Amino acid sequence: MPGWMASLHIIGIILWMGGLFMLTRHVGTHVSRETGVDEDLKVYESKSYYMGVLPGFFLTLATGLYALFLNPKIYLSVDEGVWGSTFHVKLMLVFILIVADQFFHQRMRRFHNKGDGKRKLFMAIHGIVGLCFIIIVFLMKGRYLA
Question: Does pLDDT of 81 surpass 70?
C-alpha cells in the first residue's frame, strides 16, 4: 500500500472508530435521560454519524479494499503471505465492526424516531467496538498469527 493510501486508511479509521466510540457513549447517556428525546441532541447525534462516522467508514473500506486488490497474495495467502492468518482474523473483526456500526445506526434512528432505546444496549455496542478495535491494533502491529 502506498504511503499516502496508508495515511488515508488511518485517517478513515480514526474518524470511524473515534466517532463510534463517542456516539455510542453519547447516545447511551442520552437514552438514560428522563426528559426523553432532546431534539438538539438528536440533531447533533445524527450529524455526527452522517458527517463523521459514515465518511470514515467509507474511507477505511475503500482504502482497505484498494490495498487488498493491489496485492491480494500478500494478504489472503495463509501459508505464503506476509500476514499469515492474522489478516483473516482482522477481516472477521472488521466484519463484526461493520455489523455493530449498522446495528448501532439502526437503533439510534429507532431511538430518535420512537424514543425506544436502552442504555445497556448502547454501552454493549460501545464495548464490542472497543474490544474489536484493540484486538485489531495488537494483531496488525504484532502479526501474532503470521
Answer: no
**Residue 98 in contact with residue 60, Cβ under 8 Å?**
no
Are the beta carbons of 68 and 88 closer than 8 angstroms?
Answer: no
Cell numbers 493510501: residue: 5
> Does pLDDT of 123 surpass 80?
yes
**Which residues, 6 or more positions from 32, have their beta carbon under 8 angstroms from its beta carbon?**
119
User: What mean pLDDT is reported for the chain?
Assistant: 89
Which whole-number Å values give the CA distances from 114 to 48, 101, 122, 123, in the listed order?
A: 20, 20, 16, 19
Name the burial class of residue 69, with classes exposed (0-12), middle (13-18) and buried (19+) by CB atoms within 10 angstroms of its CB: exposed
> Residue 63: pLDDT above 80?
yes
Among 49, 55, 52, 60, which Cα is nearest to 107's? 49
Return the closest-CA partner of residue 47 out of 61, 26, 73, 68.
26
Give the integer Cα–Cα distance in Å for 38 and 42.
Answer: 6
